[in-house]
Amino acid sequence: MAIRITLGQYYSADSALHRLDPRTKVCVAITIMVAVFAINTPVQLALGFACMLGAVVLAHIPAHRVIESLAPVCVMLVVLGVFNLLLTDSGEVLTALGPIRITTDGVRAAFLYSLRLVIGVLAAMLLLLTTTPAQLTDAFDALLSPLARVGLPAHELAMVFSLMLRFIPTLADEASALVDAQTARGGALGEGSPIKRVRAVVPLVVALLASSLHHANDLSRALDARCYEGGGARSHWHPLRMRGRDWAALALTCCYVAALVALG
User: Fold this and answer.
1) Both ends of the chain: CA-CA distance in Å?
2) In the beta sheet, which residues pair with residue 144?
3) Measuring CA to CA, which residue among 46, 38, 43 is closest to residue 261?
4) 175 vs 181, 184, 191, 230, CA distance in Å?
5) Could you tell me the pTM of the whole model?
6) Does residue 33 register a pLDDT over 80?
7) Fewer beta carbons below 10 Å: N end or C end of the chain?
8) How far apart are CA 26 and CA 30, in angstroms?
9) Which of 229, 224, 175 is nearest to 203 (CA)?
10) Closest to 71 (Cα-Cα) out of 120, 32, 118
11) pLDDT tens, 121-153?
12) Backbone CA torsion sign across 65, 67, 72, 76
């Protein structure tokens, strides 16, 4: 059984988005993800998708890679849409199936709320696909550095975030190996009743947790052996520097947010 994790894996390309400063990409992505909650009309939704599709084209990322990254998240959004459709009671009743009523507000919420979250997921996906973990670490370290003056461990937080991204493929490979080993011993996860399937997942979770703790212990020893000191002064091979294209990207993001507010 192969467990493929595409969301969060860097895609190497020579594009306008790849060449942006990582701090710019982080700020733009966070702004877009927050701005999705201001989308309440179909016109705003169309504007958001148009901007995201334009960003995907600029990133030179193949369509199949985008679909692979979105597929797991879209399943969750479909479930969210079904809950909104069935649990929203306001609006005109379109049809009723016993105690379950489908209303106009429910249909609107099911489509609007799910689709606008796709825009936020696309923004986060483009950030991760066009930025290496090392660049993300430097970006978060630089953006959080002013908070270090009030005692926030900015560098340590950025380091933890970078390690989290680096270990996602490792844990996915180990989970795949554990599933294969359990299947070879007759404990397939997809067979039997729902209760039996849940019980079959418990050994997998325990083994994966033990493996994660083992990796964390080895990592702490490696950091100690290299005399790592959190917050210590460090140099950069590629110093971060804002250029004209970065300021242009920030300006376009401000225009996008202003257009959302105006259309709303």
Assistant:
1) 47
2) none
3) 38
4) 10, 14, 18, 31
5) 0.74
6) yes
7) C
8) 6
9) 175
10) 118
11) 889 888 888 888 778 888 887 887 777 777 777
12) positive
